[in-house]
Amino acid sequence: MEEIQSQSDHYRSSSSSASSPASRVPSSNFFYLRKPGALRQPISFEDSPDWDDTDIEVKVEQGGADSIRTATTPVSPSLSKLNSGSLPSPPLPEGAIVARKIAGASLVWRDLTVTIKGKRKYSDKVVKSSNGYALPGTMTVIMGPAKSGKSTLIRALAGRLPDSARIYGEVFVNGVKSRMPYGSYGFVERETTLIGSLTVREYLYYSALLQLPGFLSKKRSAVEDAILAMSLGDYANKLIGGHCYMKGLPSGERRRVTIARELVMRPHILFIDEPLYHLDSVSALLMMVTLKKLANTGCTLIFTIYQSSTEVFGLFDRICLLSNGNTLFFGETLACLQHFSNAGFPCPIMQSPSDHFLRAINTDFDRIIAMCKNWQDDHGELSSVNMDTAVAIRTLEATYKSSADAAAVENMILKLTDKEGPTLKSKGKANFVAKIAVLTWRSLLIMSREWKYYWLRLILYMFLALCIGTMFSGLGHSLSSVGTRVAAVFVFVSFTSLLSIAGVPAQLKEIKIYACEEANQHSGTFVFLIGQLLSSIPFLFLLSVSSSLVFYFLIGLRDDFSLLMYFTLNFFMCLLVNEGLVLLVATICQNIFWSIIMLVTIHMVMMLSAGYFRIRSALPRPVWMYPVSYIAFHTYSIQGLLENEYIGTSFAVGQVRSLSGYQALQSAYDISADVNSKWGNLLVLFLMAVGYRILVFILLQFRVRKTLSLRCLFRCNQNTNNPR
Fold it and tell me: Is 479 exposed, middle or buried (0-12, 13-18, 19+ CB in 10 A)?
């Protein structure tokens, strides 16, 4: 303890001298004016200044738009008194929109420990014996440096840890050890995928249709309440991603849209992982003021944060400070400043409290010390960061465990868990058929607006069909044209299938949207696949009809309506199979670059084994014939199209002899002589389209099962405090 005390005194003196401008300029020329008319005194970083209460004037405008205006009049209530609730809120004018009240819930965690195998270098414990609570109508922030266990703790409270995690300890909701049912809580990820081609109101409305049961009027009301709660009224009818003539929403508004999506369910508890992620100072302050308004409606807010400004820090109610999984403090935000001062690390003036906290407990500063230990500036050593942070962490942890703040937390936990409160109930889900209809209609709307992924692809298909058709036009129907027509059909099927790789970004975006919605139980694997299939059918049918008509008549294939319909249907099934293949590869790779590389490789192998470069029966039996030629959809599509064109036809050889279409193709392509074999090829294409989607279902369902097993583990570990 003597070593810790000496190190603490050293840090206190060094941080004060290093931070003070008096160390860089003469003290006689640098003063801090405490009050008008007071004597000028040099800045002292040993003690915090006595700040006067900053008075504010709260103005509620018509329509519910709030604005906070600083004022100097003594009649306005002080900010500290407003936050503490000692003064009543100003009366609302007539016609003002009042936010809907939310019945919050208390959340308590006691001796919560989380272990993740391989997460830490020296220990698997990511969170160690954490205690804390969150009350209705308050904002509880979990703060700490990177890899301190912030996200792990909030995910443990919400039941969203990975499968490799193990949880020990107890979690109480309204004094009851039970898992939170669907709709009683919301969770906002650090990074979420929004649908840029929808407006804010449309996006939230479709989300409400997926989440909520009941009538449409109730869902519209929930959407409008969420828009009002997150102050998105000015952006409600704007596209999230914008278009070529209008920019999309700023990052701050996008973040508020993701929070509004969870507010549609009107949850009792809202978890947010890094609400200020990638936000500037103005957007961050606006976000926290909006969340403060939301907390005042009664909702329980728990979120993580890495760093904040002084203004944002003043809006927090309670803070849980973590470092390397250890709880260094839990309690009121102002008490945290006093805690650091008691431990020997007072916060210097003109420095943000969160910056000071992270400076004291972030071990990454030790690397900066090692880099700067030999540096010198014009006035001496760079000694602003010359303390061992491990000593500071041990000092703060030891001080907190023996402090009155830790005892107060334990007393509050006992009080909150002593009596059971109302049990949270599930709010119900939308039915299965409604979810499929919503996803199908939403995907159709997205396709109609995403010109880069869909309409541009239609133009490319038409252009490719026009190029191939004009290149192979005027072939005639002689025996010598058979080989050239086979080449034209092969090029058409192969190149159009290869061109479908342009849809990889759209498929990846749909998978990310599904993953986000499935994590919040808004959607399901089967619902997603059925909706994606039904919505893609009109677009693929449009592609097949337009491209087939251009190619069919330019090449000069047989003039028969039934043959034209089969050609279109065959090409449609080919595109449907290819879409399933693209979806399967995108699900496996989850990356645009590797998805494109893998798809190009697969298409090259399938084209080589399709029977054009070498007749299928002559292919080497290992690998190329079995199994590659049998799993290449090019083979069945080209076979069906050639059988549709040549079976039942004949070519005159001289004046007496004639040659059937099957015999004419024997040297160019391997087909069947059966008249109905083309329908067998069409059936194989249909089964392949279904098979690819079954594989996608298995892959996605496997991930869902891992999540479900994790939730069961979380529920069991709440009931029993023993490791598995």
Answer: middle
CA distance 412 to 291: 24
Specify the amino acid at residue 517.
E
Question: What distance in Å separates the CA atoms of residue 694 and residue 688, rounded to the nearest whole number?
Answer: 10
Would you list the DSSP string of 449-516?
A: H-IIIIIHHHHHHHHHHHHHHHHT----SSGGGHHHHHHHHHHHHHHHHHHGGGGHHHHHHHHHHHHH
Predicted local distance difference test score (pLDDT) of residue 99:
53
Q: Are 337 and 347 in contact (CB under 8 A)?
A: yes
Rounded to whole angstroms, the Cα distance separating 708 from 518 reads 11
Residue 564 lies in a domain: yes
Q: Who contacts 356 (Cβ-Cβ below 8 Å, separation ≥6)?
A: 340, 345, 347, 348
* 10-residue mean pLDDT series, the chain (724 residues): 46 39 33 32 32 35 35 34 39 47 83 82 78 93 89 91 86 88 89 89 93 83 92 91 74 92 92 90 90 91 89 90 91 89 85 84 71 54 56 88 92 90 82 91 90 87 95 84 92 94 91 88 90 93 95 92 95 96 93 95 95 90 91 95 89 76 85 90 96 94 56 42 40
Let me know if residue 471 belongs to a domain: yes
Q: Give the per-residue pLDDT at 173.
A: 92
186, β-bridge pairs? 270
pLDDT of residue 122: 55
DSSP code at position 380? E
Give one DSSP letter per residue of 97-127, joined into a string.
PPPPP-----EEEEEEEEEETTTSSS-SEEE
Amino acid at position 396, single letter: L
Helix (H, G, I), strand (E, B) or coil at 556: coil
Query: Are 659 and 651 spatial neighbours (Cβ–Cβ below 8 Å)?
Result: yes
**Spatial CA neighbour of 294 closest among 227, 210, 206, 219:** 227
CA dihedral over 195, 199, 204, 208, signed as positive or negative: negative
For residue 216, the model assigns a pLDDT of 78
Distance CA 289, CA 231 (A): 10
Longest dimension (CA), the chain: 124
C-alpha to C-alpha distance for 69 and 510, rounded to whole angstroms: 43
Q: How many CB atoms lie within 10 A of CB 367?
A: 9
Q: Per the domain annotation, does 160 fall within a domain?
A: no
Q: For residue 10, give Cα distances in angstroms to 5, 384, 400.
A: 9, 11, 20
Residue 705, in any domain of the structure: no
**What confidence score (pLDDT) does residue 351 get?**
81
Residue 171: strand pairing partners: 109
Single-letter code of the amino acid located at 268:
H
Q: Let me know if 449 is exposed, middle or buried by CB neighbors in 10 A (0-12, 13-18, 19+).
A: middle
Domain count, the chain: 1
**DSSP at 368:** H
Per-residue pLDDT, 277? 87
Name, in order, each residue with C-beta under 8 angstroms of 374's C-beta and a sequence gap of 6 or more: none
CB hemisphere CA count around 587 (13 angstroms)? 23
DSSP H or E stretch at residue 220: helix 216-229
**Residue 690 class from Cβ within 10 Å (0-12 exposed, 13-18 middle, 19+ buried)?**
middle
CA dihedral 226, 231, 237, 240 (to 10 degrees): -90
Beta strands in 532-571 (DSSP E): none
Cβ–Cβ contacts within 10 Å for residue 620, how many?
11
Q: Which two tokens stand for residue 703?
A: 């991930």
Domain of 609 in residue numbering reads as 432-696
Angle between helices 2-19 and 389-401 (to 10 degrees): 120
